[in-house]
Amino acid sequence: MAMLGASVIIACRSEKRALEAIARMKSDFQREKEQKTEGATQTDDISVEFMKLDLSSLGSTKELTDQFIDSGRQLNTLICNARIAFHPLEYTEDGNETMFQVNYLSQLLLTFHLLPVMKRSGDDSRVILVSSHGHNFHSTPFTVDKIQGKQHNADNFPRFKYYGNSKLYQILQMYFMNRRLADSNVCVVSTSWIGRHRSNTRISRYFMDDLGLENSKSKSPVEGAECTLNAAINPALKGVRDVYYQDCKPKNTHDDARNKDIQESVLEYSLSRLNDFITDDIRNEWKTK
Ligand SMILES: NC(=O)c1ccc[n+]([C@@H]2O[C@H](COP(=O)([O-])OP(=O)(O)OC[C@H]3O[C@@H](n4cnc5c(N)ncnc54)[C@H](OP(=O)(O)O)[C@@H]3O)[C@@H](O)[C@H]2O)c1
User: Fold this and answer.
1) Atom 2 in ligand 1: which residue has the minimum CA distance?
2) 228: CA distance to ligand 1 center in Å?
3) What is the sign, positive or negative, of the torsion defined by CA atoms of 153, 263, 244, 11?
4) Which of 8, 30, 66, 104 has the greatest number of CB atoms lying within 10 Å of its CB?
5) Is 135 left (phi over 0), alpha (psi -120 to 50) or beta?
6) 8 A C-beta contact, residue 242 and residue 258
7) What is the pTM of this model?
């Protein structure tokens, strides 16, 4: 995206690792420029910056949005990609089950606050929620009162299902947001890919085996990112909303993800958990009508 001329912000929790990654990107870019790789010659340098964001803290998430809004910048594309996978039962400083907050709730808070900027940023603004095939493997029957996993303890917490739940919430988010953004320039889509990440840990291997995907082809991080990049920058996808792409192709979402009652109940519950970090305007705009 930076090679195409976008100003890119990496919002993450480790400044050190972000700066190292940015230095690698800049040196890769200069090398590609020398080699005259297609697309690498359009700009002198790439613009990639770090901003601090810890999604396990609603305070940190709100701070990032305040900082971004104060900077007066435009925002055309918001990619919600961060996740924590198969985490044991733990609660954040805000009292939320960790995967619920990191993978979904904080990213929803980010989106709520940044949407007004996106609405003012041209005619093609996109929110990309990077979900997973794992959303199909959520807890069933799904009920909002089990979101925090309080009925479990550390020994019997089904981390795999709760990871699936967190990925389900992102797809529910796509639907409940688009319902309210239909007349706006902001479109929300969701992405995923099938294939083991080469850098994956044993726990992720267990995950792929569990899904019966043990023989699926490994993907490099770049191959894994392809679907999300396509959703973010492909001009042909301008104005497209409510699509879940798997490996760049539209794919059906789970029946529960398309269930409007579940979508709205998760939104209502999420608003209650974000109460101290949102304004009355946000509450009124997003409350169930
Ligand atoms: N890998 C796959 O096979 C696969 C398949 C389908 C979909 N996906 C989806 O693709 C996305 C990226 O997957 P990935 O495999 O690249 O994941 P990953 O290797 O586990 O990386 C996740 C990223 O999230 C960040 N993160 C975790 N907790 C955070 C927090 N509290 N605050 C801010 N950032 C935090 C991590 O930062 P740190 O470096 O600081 O830990 C890391 O950079 C995920 O949403 C995943 O569900 C992955």
Assistant:
1) 197
2) 13
3) negative
4) 104
5) alpha
6) no
7) 0.94
Distance CA 165, CA 162 (A): 5
In Å, how far from its chain's centre is CA 88? 21
Ligand 1 neighbours (beta carbon < 6 A): 12-14, 53-56, 81-85, 102, 130, 132, 192-193, 196-197, 200, 224
**What residue ranges of the chain are covered by domains with CATH 3.40.50.720?**
54-286
Mutation to probe ligand 1, out of 10, 12, 101, 226 (largest number of atoms < 8 A from CB):
12
Residue 131 alpha carbon to ligand 1 centre in Å: 10
Helix (H, G, I), strand (E, B) or coil at 219: strand
Q: How far is the CA of 6 from the centre of ligand 1 (A)?
A: 22
Residues 195, 216 contacting (CB under 8 angstroms): yes
Q: Provide φ and ψ at 92, rounded to 5°.
A: -75, 175
Q: pLDDT tens per residue, the chain (289 residues)?
A: 998 889 999 999 999 999 999 999 999 999 988 888 777 767 788 999 999 999 999 999 999 999 999 999 999 999 999 999 999 999 999 999 999 999 999 999 999 999 999 999 999 999 999 999 999 999 999 999 999 999 999 999 999 999 999 999 999 999 999 999 999 999 999 999 887 554 454 445 445 555 555 555 677 888 889 999 999 999 999 999 999 999 999 999 999 999 999 999 999 999 999 999 999 999 999 998 6
- Cβ within 8 Å of residue 81, ≥6 positions away: 128, 130, 228
Atom 29 of ligand 1 has which residue's CA nearest to it? 55
